[in-house]
Design a protein that fits this description.
By secondary structure, the chain is of the alpha+beta class. The protein has 9 helices and 20 strands. Bound molecules: adenosine-5'-diphosphate and magnesium ion.
Length: about 375
């Protein structure tokens, strides 16, 4: 068992308030990714769990027991750093076996464990080599092997793929996922890369400036972002965000982005939802895939101009000029023929997010396309 509970964790570095009342439970066998921009406090949080950093207040519990008094070595937790931190004078075999040195295990048992880990990481053929003779991805495999060999209750990884190139990162992602399925150790993984977070996590905990913004499954944080920060941090290209005003118009609502722009049609119920949510000023968010584009004039669509076309192979990202506002849409490759083309666009109500401009919190309004 390894359930990790962080309760009201606070940390100062001098006068700088780095972790602000952080509460998070990582369930037994769960893979939780701490995601956030550089400097938001991810490493500090992870180091606190590992026992490498003291906190100023709050509790850290592993399997229900407070661990602040325990030394790092007594927490049965393995830590993988961004920089591989291998012993340069030891072979891959000796590096992986290193954590077992202090145990009284027989040579045969150590060897069996090292070989099993090396097999699952597909580095058996590299065991005789020193780190200097290994490629980046293989060094990282050795570092992970060293962390796994003790079969720790929990694995903490701090941007373990940060130093690898894009293609290797993708390979290692798949491998880490498989390893987690095999080992089932509770894992906390730190990254600033939202793609990595989405692909690896059972749940993602998103931080900004020491404050936990939202904890949820990849589906939650992508489709139901709790605030503007999460909405814009998760997803690529980023979600379109714009100030908006809404008014009733017969059997529908009309939503305009800025003054003078042709308004988009929304279900009539939007007005009621906004009034129920007691919204102040309104900001809407919509991902490029929620901006629907038509080459021909279509009922419910408004005329817009293509300002920029970014071909990405599988699809295009097209910047549309809606009044003074630019809105990015995702279209089939080549669908909008050229810059300056007139096309028609619509915001899919089911994919539109509504935020309170002042608090930046989501108003949690969910519309169903076509509903009234
Ligand atoms: N040992 C330290 N002394 C002083 N400030 C630190 C120390 N470690 C981190 N910080 C500061 O704490 C904040 C959070 O850092 P960190 O946890 O490393 O962020 P992240 O891992 O999310 O990039 C940053 O502002 C960083 O400059
Ligand atoms: Mg860090």
């Amino acid at each position: 068992m390894a359930e990790i509970i962080l309760r009201d964790i606070e940390k100062y570095f001098g006068a700088v308030y780095v972790i602000r009342k952080l509460n998070l439970t990582i369930k037994h066998r769960e893979f939780v990714v701490l995601l956030g921009p550089s400097g938001c406090g991810k490493t500090t949080t992870l180091r606190a769990v590992a026992g490498l950093e003291d906190v100023d207040s709050g509790d850290i519990l592993i399997d229900g027991k407070p661990v602040q008094q325990l030394e790092a070595g007594d927490r049965d937790i393995a830590f993988v750093f961004q920089l591989f931190a291998l012993y340069p004078h030891l072979t891959a075999y000796e590096n992986i076996a290193f954590p077992l040195r202090a145990t009284s295990e027989s040579k045969a048992s150590v060897e069996a464990k090292v070989r099993a880990v090396a097999k699952s990481l597909q580095i058996e053929h590299l065991l005789g080599k020193r780190p200097s003779a290994l490629a980046g991805g293989d060094m990282q495999r050795v570092a992970i092997g060293r962390a796994l060999v003790r079969r720790p209750k929990a694995m903490l990884m701090d941007e373990p793929m940060g130093a690898l190139d894009a293609k290797l990162r993708e390979e290692m992602r798949t491998e880490l996922k498989r390893l987690h399925l095999e080992n089932e150790s509770t894992t906390v993984y730190v990254t600033h890369d939202q793609v990595e977070a989405m692909s690896l996590a059972d749940r993602i905990a998103i931080m900004n400036e020491g404050v936990l913004q939202q904890v949820g499954t990849p589906d939650d944080v992508y489709h139901r972002p709790a605030n503007l920060f999460v909405a814009q941090f998760v997803g690529s290209p980023v979600m379109n965000i714009a100030a908006a005003n809404v008014k009733a118009d017969g059997s529908r609502s009309l939503l305009a982005l800025g003054k003078g722009a042709a308004p988009f049609e929304f279900p009539k119920s939007l007005i009621r939802h906004l009034s129920d949510a007691k919204a102040n000023d309104l900001t809407v968010g919509i991902r490029p895939e929620g901006v629907l584009v038509s080459q021909t004039e279509t009922a419910g669509y408004v005329p817009v101009t293509a300002h920029l076309i970014e071909p990405l192979g599988a699809y295009d990202i097209v910047d549309l000029k809606v009044g003074a506002q630019l809105v990015r849409a995702r279209t089939a490759s080549g669908y909008v023929s050229k810059v300056g083309a007139r096309v028609w666009a619509r915001l899919d109500p089911a994919q539109t997010h509504f935020f309170d401009t002042r608090t930046t919190d989501s108003l949690r309004i969910r519309l169903v396309d076509g509903a009234h």
